[in-house]
# Entry
Amino acid sequence: MTLHLDDARWRSAVDAHLRDEATAEHATLLEQHVPRSEEHRAEAAFLAALAEPPADPEASPAWLQTAVDAYARTVAQTRSQPAVRSPRWPWLAAAAAIALVVGVGAALHFGSDEAHRARSFEIATLIGPASEERRTDDAVWTIESGSARLSALPVDQVVTVEAELCAARPGRTICADAGSSVTARGSGALALHRGSATIRSEDSDDARVELDEVGVHASHHSVVVIERQAAGWSVSVEQGSATVTELGSSRRLSEGESLRRGGRAPAPTKGSKARPSPKASALLGRARAQRREGDTRAAMGTYAELIRTHPRSPAAQAARMSLAQLHLDRGAAKDALRLFRAYEKRGGPLSEEAAYGEIRALLELGRSSEAKRATAAFVRRYPQSPYGAKLTQ
Amino acid sequence: MRVAPPTSQPDRDAELALCQRVAEGDRAAADTLARLIMPVVRHAALRVTRTASDAEDASQVATLEVLRSARHFAARGSLRGWAGRIAVRSVVRWNARHGTPMVPEHDPDRSLGASAPAPGSEALPRPLEHYLDALPEPQRTALVLRHSLGYTIPEIAETTESPVPTVRSRIDKAMARVRSAIRRDVHLGTKGASA
# Structure
């Protein structure tokens, strides 16, 4: 075995540089030393290639033109129409809109070059101008950020939301949780195909969500949580009242009441309310506002408080998914895993996403054999899932 | 490339005026700003993401993010540096949420954005992307931000919303994996293979 002492010192200098702890001696060594062993020369070549900028780009790549065009049209659209804003229910950040349009692409399984161009077109279309009818039509659900109207939800198109997303019409807002699928109807209603959504109605009595043959109308100043699973659905009124129309008959729900068809009902806990309380809704709203303002740490604390104080509420289930994703994004895979599993144990409209998150967390933790087993179970349970292809690649 | 030269007052006035025009919806100004940041957007996207199509999507989203943020530019530093930070953060977030997961084979389309041959690169048994694609996303991002884009550890921590010790750990683990792969290739005599 050949020992190259200088190469070992050079590698120490590389480590010090990468850890942001390089001294002047390290810098000199990095500048002057030429590794002698083949292995160290290859490592030096790797670092040199990594530091090198990519080759000269195209003068005018398509993505740049698409982004500029989309931006210019969005600003023009914003200026052509005063923004409809609610002082009480602020909008989600631009990231949500971006997540939405990307989510459309993911939902449609784009993959090839041709499909990729189509996905770029989708992004441009959604961020770009709405038709004249849409601009003047109150029935359009609009995604907004700050004072800008970013896009209109496409009518009669299934949209899968990859991050929490709020869409608005005058006097009402509907927020869909991550993983939910929705369609904006030409009538102004929003159809919920999967997942969960929260209606917040202020000065409108026409905030309406459809679940196939079932219609849910939220009254003035009401907050209504709707969940839809493969086996059924539930409607819970957190504030105000709502009317559920089913097979020609209507039922009015007051604050604190809920209605469920099929699916698994949440088990009440001793000493706690089974139904969501306004406080749970307030905590969820606060966490979302904190995320929108970029205060992720505070949002995580609020999500945790919500889960601790209202563990059985629908809002807490939504919080588990959001908090798990935040933990995963921040490298805390162990915490994320615990929350994804907690969500799966209780069940909900995002069980598929929770199972996918569990696998990602396991991979992040290096528990590859567990991840492999979980992936096999996932593919068996959700054979049509768009996540399946990602996991089995 | 992340560190921009000091900007003179006339330059800053011009940059402020440019951002003002962007905020007002001036398409030509938006095009100018997009082209100004294109190198850093493309650099970050090609190094952080795993596929050519992901790089294009991340670049598009990052450019939009910068254009939308133009109205907040206060000229406390250079426009290129300010916009570059926004763009890189956007690319990292996009990739964390939507990027293609780690796969054993790297995307051959990546050759479209491959590095110019670096001095001594013939000593590397396989293409750069092969070694990067073998890293988990958080490790790859940390290593790229540190060595390719020149970020400091605290800047990486802020960009990736991770604690400083975690960032250091990710970089250590990334280099350990790269070294292990290089050692294996050198000992097996692998040369020029794509996977």
Q: What stands out?
A: The mean pLDDT of chain A is 71. Chain A touches chain B through 65 residues (CB under 8 Å). Residues 278-392 of chain A form a domain with the Serine Threonine Protein Phosphatase 5, Tetratricopeptide repeat fold (CATH 1.25.40.10). The radius of gyration of chain A is 25 Å.
